[in-house]
Design a protein that fits this description.
With about 260 residues, the protein is mainly alpha-helical. The protein has 9 helices and no strands. About 70% of the residues lie in helices and about 0% in strands.
C-alpha cells in the first residue's frame, strides 16, 4: 500500500510539474471566468428576460437566473479533454513508463495510480474553475444576480453535475490516449462532439444519444436547451464509456510492451 501511495504521489508530481498543467489552469481558472464576466455584462445590456424575438442575435431565450453561467462551462471541456489525452499518450514518450516500472513493477498498480492521480487533479481544477465561473457570472450581474458565494440550490447542483462531466470526459480522453498511445485519437473522437456535432447526432439518430459528449450534456442542460436535463441517464452512459475504455486500456497496458518514443 505504501508503494502504491508513493506511486500516486510520483504521478501527481509529474502532472503538476508539466507545462500542460499550468496552461490548462490558466485557461480554465483564469480565462474562462473572465469570459463569464464579459457574458454577464452583455446580458445586463440586453436584459435578463431577452428572447430571440426581442433580440434576433440570440439563438435561444436566456435561461432562468439559477442557470446563468453554465453556457460558458463547455468551453473548459476542450482544454480538459486535450489535457487528458496528452497525459495518457505522453506516458509512452521518452521511456517514462520504463522509468516508472523500475520503481513499481506491478503494471496494474501503475495504471491505477495514473488514473487516481488524474482523478485528483481533474477534480480539483474542475471544481475551482466551474465555481469561479458561476460566481463571477453572478458577481457581474450585480444586484440582479444570485449571491456570488451562496448562489442557490439549483446552481450548486449544476456545479456538481458539471464537475462530474469534466472529470469523466477527462478520464475518458486519458483512457483513449493511453490505449492508442496517441493524443490525436481522443481529440479527433471527442472534440468534434463539443462543437454541436454530438447534439446534432443525438437529435437526428437514436444512437447519437449514447455518444459521450451528448450524454455529458444531459448533466447541465438548462430549461431553454433543446435537450432534456437527465443526469442519471447521462451519467450512466458516460460512466460506461469510461469504465469500458479503462478496462480495455488496462488490458492493453498489462499485456503489451510499454515501448517508448525518444
Amino acid at each position: 500500500m505504501k508503494t502504491f501511495c508513493r506511486t500516486i504521489r510520483f504521478e501527481l508530481i509529474k502532472i503538476r510539474s508539466s507545462r500542460g498543467w499550468w496552461v490548462i489552469c490558466a485557461l480554465v481558472i483564469v480565462f474562462q471566468p473572465l469570459m463569464a464576466l464579459l457574458v454577464a455584462k452583455s446580458y445586463l445590456e440586453i436584459g435578463l428576460d431577452a428572447t430571440p424575438e426581442t433580440h434576433p442575435e440570440l439563438a435561444q431565450a436566456l435561461p432562468p437566473l439559477d442557470y446563468f453561467g453554465f453556457e460558458i462551462v463547455p468551453f473548459g471541456l476542450l482544454p480538459m479533454i486535450v489535457f487528458g489525452g496528452i497525459i495518457g499518450a505522453s506516458e509512452y514518450k521518452h521511456h517514462q513508463l520504463r522509468t516508472t516500472l523500475l520503481c513499481q513493477s506491478s503494471r496494474i498498480k501503475v495504471f491505477c495510480a495514473k488514473v487516481f492521480s488524474l482523478l485528483i487533479c481533474s477534480t480539483f481544477i474542475s471544481f475551482i474553475a466551474i465555481l469561479a465561473t458561476i460566481s463571477i457570472t453572478h458577481s457581474g450581474l450585480g444586484k440582479l444576480g444570485l449571491h456570488p458565494f451562496y448562489l442557490s440550490t439549483i446552481a450548486w447542483q449544476f456545479i456538481g453535475y458539471s464537475v462530474l462531466d469534466w472529470i469523466l470526459l477527462t478520464i475518458l480522453s486519458f483512457g483513449i490516449g493511453m490505449l492508442f498511445r496517441n493524443a490525436i485519437v481522443p481529440l479527433a473522437f471527442l472534440l468534434p462532439q463539443l462543437y454541436n456535432l454530438g447534439n446534432f447526432l443525438a437529435q437526428k439518430y437514436e444512437w447519437g444519444k449514447y455518444l459521450p459528449v451528448a450524454a455529458g450534456n444531459l448533466f447541465f442542460a438548462t430549461p431553454t436547451d433543446p435537450f432534456e436535463h437527465d443526469p442519471l441517464r447521462g451519467g450512466t452512459v458516460l460512466l460506461m464509456w469510461v469504465i469500458v475504455t479503462l478496462i480495455i486500456s488496462l488490458y492493453s497496458f498489462v499485456r503489451s510492451d510499454v515501448g517508448g518514443k525518444n
